Amino acid sequence: MTAKPQQDDDGFDAEAFDALDSYCQALHAGQASDRSSLVARDPGLAGVFDCLEELHRLSAAAGLGPAPPTLPLAPAGPDSSPAPLLSPAEFGNYELLGLLGRGGMGAVYKARQKELDRIVALKMILGCQFASPAELRRFQAEARATAKLTHPHVLQVYEAGCVNGQHFFTMQYVDGPSLAQRLRDGPLEPEEAARCLLGVARAVAYLHEQGIVHRDLKPSNILLQSGVRGQGPGVSKEAFGSLTPDSCPLTPDSSLFPYVTDFGLIKMVQSSSDLTGTGVIVGTPSYMAPEQAAGRNAAVGPLSDVYSIGAILYETLTGRPPFHESTPFDTLVQVIENEPALPHELKPNVPRELELICLKALGKKPELRYASASALADDLERFLRGEPVSARPQNLVQRLVRWARQEPGLVARLTALGASAAIAAIYYQLNHQVPLWYHLTIMGLLALWALASFCCQWLLRAGRHARTVGLAWLMSDGVMLTAVLIVDQAFYSPLAIGYGILIVGSGFWYRASVVWFTTALACFGYASLTLAGIVATGQGVSPHHHLIIFAGLGVTGWMVATQVERVRVLSRFYERK
Q1: How confident is the model over 427-462, as pLDDT tens digits?
Q2: Which tens digit of pLDDT belongs to each residue from 108-151?
Q3: Which residue of 39, 168, 215, 538 is 20 to 30 Å from 441, comparing CA positions?
C-alpha cells in the first residue's frame, strides 16, 4: 500500500511540492532526472510530470528559447562532492565536465574552454526560456558587475555570452571547498578565522569602493584555496593590507585564501534603479543584517555587508551562525529582535579581542557597527599583529540592552513583577491597615513568580525540550496570576485584564497552538478565580459579567491565533518560492 503523503497545517503536500520543484529545476537546467522513484511514491505525479515535459518541449518549439543540452549526471558522492557528468557535454566553445553547484537563479558547472584549453567555472541561468525579464536583468547585471572587478579575493570573470538562447558567463575556477564545506568539520582556529575573514573584508571594502553592496555574503559564497607563504596563488600585498604574507605568521597548511563569489543579489549604491522591490527580503536569513531581514531595502548599504562579515566570523569561531532556527521566518525574527550568545560561551578558546571585533560587526543598528568594511579589516589586522583593537567592551547600559534582547520574555516578566512589587510596597506604606502577613504573602508570590521565570529561562537556554518548557512557563504564569488575584481578593477587579495580556503575549511564540493553549489556560484561571470569589464572599455577580469576560478572552485568543497562522502560512509560501 502506498503511504499517504504528509500534509502541513494548511493542507499543502510539502513533499510533493519539493519533488516537483526539484524536477522543474533539473528540467530547466537540462539535466536528466529519474522520475520513477517519485512516481512510485505518489502515482498522481505521473500526469504532472508529463504535462511539465510537454510544456518544456512546446516552449522551445514556439521560439521561447531552445532547451539547454541534456547533462546526464552521475550520483553525487556521500561527501557532497560535485556531481560529475557521465560524459562531457558540448556548450559552444566549452565542454561541461561537472555540476559544481546550483542556487535559486543559476547553475555553475566545471567546464573546459576548448580554444585556450583551460578549466573555468561556467554559470548559466536556470530555465532560461522560462526566465522572467527581471531574472535575466539580474543575471546580466551580475555578469557586468563582476567583469569590472579586479581584486585578489574576487573571482575574475573571463567571458559572458549566449549559446542557443542560454545566457552564461565564465569565471576563474577555484579547486577548493567553500567555507561552508570547511566548517562542516568544525570551527576554525581563532587566528585562522581572523586571517580568512581579513581577506573577505578587504574584498568587500573593494566592492564598496566600486559602489557595489553584495547583500548575500555567507560561507557558501566564499571559496577557499590553500595558499603558500610568499607568492601563493593570487596572493598579493593588497590582499592583506599592510599585513603581507611575509610579515604574517602563516603556515602552508593553515593559510586559507578566500574568494568572494556569487553577485546575484548585488545592489549598486550609486544607481537609482534596484532589481529588488521595496519590502522584498533578499539574502540568507542567518547572515542578514536586521534592516535587510526587515525588508527595508532602502536602508541596506555597505554596513549591511559589515554585519554579514561579522555573522560569518561568528560561525567560523563557534561552528554555528548567530541565529539559526527551524524555519527561515523564525530565523528572521531572531535576527531582528534578539542578540546572539557570546562566542566565548560556546567556545571558551575564543580570544576576548576577536570576540569584541565580532560583536561590534554584529551591531543591531548600522551606527553601532564598524564605519566600513575597511575599518573591520584593519581591526582584524591589529588582532593578528597582537596590537590593541579599536572595538571596546560594552558599557553597563549596552549590556543591559543586550540582555533584554537576548531574554525578552524574562525581562518583560521581571519588569512587570518589579512594578507590581513597587506598587504593593507603596500601598503598604501608605495604608497602615494592611496586615503584615498579607503584604508578605503578596511579595512572596511575586518573588516565587520571578524565580519560576528565571528557572524556565535557564531551561530554554539549555536548549532541551524548548516547547515543553515554553508551555510550562505559560502555565506557571497563569497559575501565579490566579494565585495573586485570589490572595488579593481581586475576584471582580479590573486586574483580570492580566489574563488577556497573557494571551496577547503568547503570540510572540508565533505558534497558533500555543495561543490556543494560553487562551484555554486563561479561561480556566478566570473560572478558578470566580469560584474562589463565590466561596470567599458567599455571593457572585451577574452571569452576564462572566460571559462577557469569557467571550472577550476567546475573541482575543482567536484574533491572535488567526494573525499568527496567517504569518506562518505566508512564511511557508515564501520558503517554497
Answers
A1: 888 887 888 898 999 999 999 999 999 999 999 888
A2: 899 999 989 999 999 887 665 556 677 777 777 777 778 888 89
A3: 538
In this structure, are residues 317 and 333 in contact, taking their beta carbons and an 8 Å threshold?
no
CB atoms within 10 A of CB 30: 22
Same domain, 197 and 132: no
Tally Cβ neighbours within 10 Å of residue 532.
17
Residue whose entry in the numeric block shows the C-alpha cell 598579493? 236
Residue of 21, 50, 175, 216 marked active site:
216
Q: SS3 of 171, please? A: strand
Which helix (H) or strand (E) is 259 found in, with range? strand 256-260
Among 23, 19, 45, smallest CA distance to 32 is for 23
Domain span holding position 414: 407-576
In terms of pTM, does the model score above 0.90? Answer: no
Active site residue 216: yes
Burial 406-424 (b: 16+ CB within 10 A, else e): bbebbbebbebbeebbeeb
- The answer to whether residue 444 is domain-embedded is yes
Alpha carbon distance 139, 105 (integer Å): 8
